[in-house]
Amino acid sequence: MNWLIVIPFVFALVIIGVAFGPKGQPQVGVVxxxxxxxxxxxxxxxxxxxxxxxxxxxxxxxxxxxxxAWTKVKEAIVAVGGEIQLADDGYLWAxxxxxxxxxxxxxxxxxxxxxxxxxxxxxxxxxxxDMGVNRERVERLRALFGK
Length: 147
What we know:
By secondary structure, the chain is α+β, with helices and mostly antiparallel strands. The protein is 31% helix and 26% strand. Strands 3, 4, 5, 6, 7 and 8 form a six-stranded antiparallel β-sheet that branches. Helix 2 crosses helix 3.
């Protein structure tokens, strides 16, 4: 009978700990002119060459002026629920917070105007697997950006 009380109590403590606990530190920024590589864990995708096959995703392609593409991708980030933390001439960092567990994911974009692509990286700050959330987010961005 005590288990009927203890198990829900422990479960509630775990949920509260995850919801209000530390969210991890962002590992963002351009290194040697490229976005950071993904960690070995399956909770990150990146379009820069040299990524492991599991983490590799296509960049966003565009035609026309790079400035117009940059504006459009910023609008797409906000439309899918991102909060832009930093945006300058060729780099953007945004955060996405999950609804229930309040996990924070970082999305970064790097303009490559010469090749008419926007390189991108989407990564979870904590945990091992993201259950495909970062890849799905990038594909939603791609769909909005392509309209």
